[in-house]
Amino acid sequence: MKIIDLISERKKEGHIPFYSFEYFPPKTEEGIINLKSRIERMVHQLNPLFADVTWGAGGSTSTETINISSWIERYSGTEAMMHLTLTNMTLEQIDTAIEEAKEKGIKNILALRGDPPRGQEAWRPPEGGLHYASDLVRHIKEKYGDYFGIAVAGYPEGHVDATSKEDDLSHLKEKVDAGADLIITQLFYDDDVFIDFYQKCREIGIACPIIPGIMPIQSYQGFHRMTTFCKTKVPQQILDDLEAIKEDEDEVKKYGINLAIKTCKKLAEYGIEGFHFYTLNLERSVIAIVNELGLVETEREAPWRKVAGRRDEGVR
Ligand code: FAD
Predict the structure, then answer these.
(1) Which of 9, 13, 22, 297 is the catalytic position?
(2) Is the CB–ligand 1 distance for residue 58 below 6 Å?
(3) Residue 57 CA: which ligand 1 atom is closest?
(4) Is pLDDT at 313 greater than 70 in this prediction?
(5) What is the pLDDT of residue 33?
(6) 186 alpha carbon – ligand 1 mean position (Å)
(7) Given ligand 1 and candidates 170, 171, 226, which is best to mutate, with the most ligand atoms within 8 Å of its CB?
(8) Contacts from 121-128 at CB under 8 Å and sequence distance 24+?
(9) Which residue in 46, 90, 199, 250 is deepest, having the highest Cβ count within 10 Å?
(10) Which pLDDT does position 105 carry in this prediction?
């Protein structure tokens, strides 16, 4: 089912905010088996609205991304969303990937431009391919009609290549106008930056759900690596707090859990439809956050949930 339809159903029934989980394809067969067990545990315990799988930079994980997304859709008990980037892809290759996704039961795509492939500084448009994510959204709509639910990326701090925050917002609107039905944001640690972005989106007429991307701090090193890579603004208070506990992994995890809970509670006041968690393929922090927020619904309370029987459809 399309994620936007699930969100609409929830809204009609006055449900509390949903949550969804992002995973990335592991490099080894054993890693993939472990990830599937983890996804099953998380789906079983927490009942997320959907789970999505990243598309490695430059298409480096395309096969695994399609296969894991398909497995989620068919066997995990939740809806799948597959990331797809246009980097390094001709139009023909994009269509091959979309056709395969369709054949394998995937109904939702997060349409992205993509980052430069590893070792390449600046992003370059592929020859014989598309340029912006809005082109990809338009292409999917033109060629596949309403078959796929389409999400796109939004940047509360503005995208790094954007000429200005205003330009970036108008390009975000282009993606929605081209047919995207929801926005998932880049990670952020300054709640006010997200709130400002959210309000500006509404002011310029973006009416679709805007789902904040929440990345719980799971380790000091990982946090620094990720915020440096994404050029994320981190409030001084958070940096000071972390500096004091950086040698104690458990304390850092606990801090990350509490910080994410605080952020979700604050954003919930703005009528946010849901929270999207970057799990980093780990479960402990996300399980703690979702439980503590009191958002977990039982199957009976959540009729939009996939039928558990689908898990028995075939061999995994
Ligand atoms: P676009 O929307 O195309 O924007 C890219 C830049 O071009 C922006 O600066 C924008 O302002 C500008 N722009 C857009 N349209 C125009 C126009 N018409 N004229 C001039 N300028 C324009 N990367 C991966 O490789 N794999 C993933 O799985 C992945 N998942 C992600 C998930 C989320 C939720 C997010 C937020 C990001 C993800 N990324 C992923 C990173 C993303 O690919 C990069 O941030 C990439 O640099 C931009 O992608 P985009 O789809 O936002 O691009």
Answers:
(1) 22
(2) no
(3) 25
(4) no
(5) 97
(6) 10
(7) 171
(8) 123/87, 123/161, 126/86, 126/87, 126/88, 126/89, 126/90, 127/90, 128/90, 128/91, 128/92
(9) 46
(10) 97
The pLDDT tens digits of the residues spanning 171-180 come to 999 999 999 9
Q: Which ipTM value was assigned to this complex?
A: 0.99
The one-letter amino acid code at 59 reads G
Catalytic site includes residue 9: no
Give the integer Cα–Cα distance in Å for 270 and 220. 30
Q: Is the pTM of this model over 0.90?
A: yes
For atom 9 of ligand 1, which residue has the closest CA?
A: 162
Determine the 3-state secondary structure of 80 from DSSP: strand
Q: How far, in Å, from the CA of 295 to the mean position of ligand 1?
A: 30
**Best residue among 112, 123, 230 to mutate for probing ligand 1, ranked by most atoms within 8 Å of CB:** 112
CA atoms of 198 and 187, how far apart (whole Å): 14
pLDDT at 15: 79
Q: Which atom of ligand 1 is nearest to the CA of 152?
A: 51
In this predicted structure, the answer to whether residue 120 has a pLDDT above a threshold of 90 is: no
Q: What is the pLDDT of residue 32?
A: 98
176 CB within 6 A, ligand 1: no
pLDDT at 305 over 70: no
Q: Are 101 and 82 in contact (CB under 8 A)?
A: yes
**Distance from the CA of 301 to the center of ligand 1, in angstroms?**
36
**Average pLDDT, integer, range 27-39:** 97
**Could you give the CA distance from residue 242 to residue 223 in angstroms, rounded to a whole number?**
10
The CA 153 to ligand 1 mean position distance, Å, reads 6
Report residue 228 as tokens. 């440096």
* Centroid of chain to Cα 112: 11
Alpha helices (runs of H) in the chain, residue ranges in sequence order: 3-12, 29-46, 62-71, 91-103, 133-144, 165-177, 191-203, 220-229, 236-245, 249-268, 284-293
Residue 306 has pLDDT above 70, yes or no: no
Pocket flag, ligand 1, residue 213 (CB < 6 Å): yes
Mean pLDDT of 246-275: 96
**Residue minimizing CA distance to atom 20 of ligand 1:** 171
